[in-house]
Amino acid sequence: IKLAEKGYKCYLGNKSEIWRLFDRLKNFAYLDKGYHENFSKQKIYEKVVERNGLLFNLDEEGGVDFSGSPTILRRYSQNVFKYMEKVFLWGEDQRLLLKKNNLFYNDEKVVVSGHPRFQLLSNPYRRIYQKEIKPKVDKYGKFILFNSNSKYSNHLRGEDFLISNYGKRIENINERIEYDKEKLKHNIELIKEINDKLDYNIIIRPHPEENIDFYKKLFKNNQKIFSIYDQDVIPWLLSCKFMIHNDCTTAIEYFISGKEPIAFNHKLEKKLSARDPISISRNFSDISELISFIKKGEKISENFDYKKINRKFSKDLDSFHIIVEEIDKGIKKKYQTSIETKTFINFNNNFLNFFRLIKTYFFLNKADKLIKNKTKGLSDSEYVFNMFNKILKISNTRLVKIKNHGSCLLYTSDAADEEDSV
Fold first, then answer.
1. Are the beta carbons of 115 and 58 closer than 8 angstroms?
2. What's the CA gap between 418 and 411, in Å, rounded?
């Protein structure tokens, strides 16, 4: 929306649909949401460069990591810095880590921007979710949200898939699977104890790669436990009385929204657990102590180092503005054109406007639950259009239009000719 407001035609679509556009375009910008070894360079980066396109990186998993930072160091390969015009980072701590490991040498390529997912929890954007809070409270009353993160023990495609798909990328995959199985066992014990001893409903919201049917079958006869996976976790975070996790990224969002997450780990193995979600949470290893804490209803601790949180997640930065301005500057620098020139496209006269291609999934193979879960929300056109309209109402934005374009979505400003598109 913000880029369309500047006059760009912006496409949001699944990977295969977006990639097909590469062969039909020159002079476009592509926003990459994560590097994958033996794939991104050959299948995406080289293709974009071949078509005289520009690459920008805004990693979806660029801030939460394990001991030794294996995820960040893997996802910010030297190939990322080689091919990207700009690399947007969640925080200053990540920039220093990558610099220390000699992954980049050109400081001008790296921008600490924060991430829009956190800015959506600030005003005025937080109001987007306001109307979704009351229906949840009306239906479930006071409830505890349990954000499960047990994909290694409860994966939709099973253990063999886990090993074949993640084994080469993740160290100690077998150790991680065994640790996750133990963690899941204690999670179930905790949920049962909460159900027996506290007057709360429980919402189990599994990781998108988890098999939700495991929870549904386990608690199928229970009137207080609900297993749900829908479009967006934020309304659940804003609606619940308490949120419990093991080491889930949603704890960061919950904390930034002004609440204190609860981390439960019976026997915490630090090298196999994400550090930051645990460090900002109230931590428990004993079920009875956790239940006692909920009964008391204590408020958020005053002991957190908010400067440290900001160094990692830059929650006070205007991420939208920083990212959009840097993309706009990068395009102008490369193609040396004014904004008016690239607002329109006219293929009859062979003028191409600069396309902003946003990579994510949109339409799914409905037979594959894994893809369906990971693209929940974006597969629902009504949900996307409703979210689009909510954002326009609360933000100071010029008129921007959205329409279906094959299996992609096209965002354009009111000045752009919506019929004049690929």
1. yes
2. 9
Spatial distance between the Cα atoms of 132 and 155, rounded to a whole number of angstroms: 29
Q: Which residues neighbour 154 within 8 Å (Cβ) at sequence distance 6 or greater? A: 148, 180, 184, 206, 210, 211, 214
What's the rounded Cα separation, in Å, for the pair 99 and 112?
13
- Segment (H or E) for 163: helix 158-166
Indicate the length of the chain as a whole number: 422
Burial class (CB in 10 A: 0-12, 13-18, 19+), 252: buried
At 339 the pLDDT is: 41
Structure tokens at 403: 């329409």
8 residue type, one letter:
Y
Q: What percent of the chain has pLDDT over 70?
A: 86
pTM: 0.84
pLDDT-derived band at 401, boundaries 50, 70, 90:
confident
Task: Please give the pLDDT value at position 35.
Answer: 93
3-state secondary structure of 26: coil
Cα separation, 413 vs 398, in Å, equals 7
Q: Minimal CA–CA distance to 291: which of 162, 175, 195, 219?
A: 195
Q: Are 145 and 237 in contact (CB under 8 A)?
A: yes
- Burial environment of residue 74 by CB neighbours within 10 A (0 to 12, 13 to 18, 19 or more): middle
Taking the CA atoms of 188, 144, 376 and 168 in sequence, report the sign of the dihedral they define.
negative
CB 394 within 8 A of CB 128: yes
pLDDT band (50, 70, 90) for residue 391: confident
* Per-residue confidence (pLDDT) for residue 14, from 0 to 100: 73
* CA distances to 1, 75, 150, 358, 401 from 10, in Å: 8, 25, 35, 7, 10
What pLDDT is stored for residue 73 in this prediction?
93
pLDDT digits (tens, 9 = 90+) for 85-127: 999 999 999 999 999 999 999 999 999 999 998 998 888 888 9
Beta bridge pairs of residue 58: 88
Instruction: Tell how strand 9-13 and strand 408-413 pair up.
Output: antiparallel
Q: What is the mean pLDDT of residues 286-300?
A: 87
Dist. CA 371–CA 40, nearest whole Å: 19
* Cβ proximity of 151 and 207 under 8 Å: yes
Strand partners, 403: 410
Structure tokens at 398: 């010029």
